[in-house]
Structures are given as C-alpha cells and as structure tokens.
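Usage

Read records sequentially. Each one opens with the input sequence:
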Amino acid sequence: MKNKILGIVGVAWGGGILFRHFTVNQGYTNPDYQAGINFAAIFGAAMLVVGLYTFFKKS
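and closes with the structure output:
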C-alpha cells in the first residue's frame, strides 16, 4: 500500500511540474536560469515515469 501511495505522489508531483513547464511562458534570457528550468522538466518527467511504474507494478 505504501508503494501505491508513493506512486500516486510521484505521478501528481511530476505531472504538476511538467504541466507548469508546458503552460507557463518561459521568455527568460539568462542561460543559467533556462538550464535550471529544463532540468526541472527532466526531473518532473522522471518522477512521472517512476511514479507510474511504481503505481502499476505488481507486488
């Protein structure tokens, strides 16, 4: 049951990060700031994938 809850948290958090990444205008010119935003999107995608795997994994 703990893995299901953590999977749901990972899906919600990762999905929220990706939703914000694709819906907010990112017109920043500082390359360091843009690199941080891109890394956050990669991290959110990884959380989403791992959360889905954890949620649907047979125990």
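Summary fields computed downstream for this record:
- The radius of gyration is 14 Å.
- The chain is about 80% helix and 0% strand.
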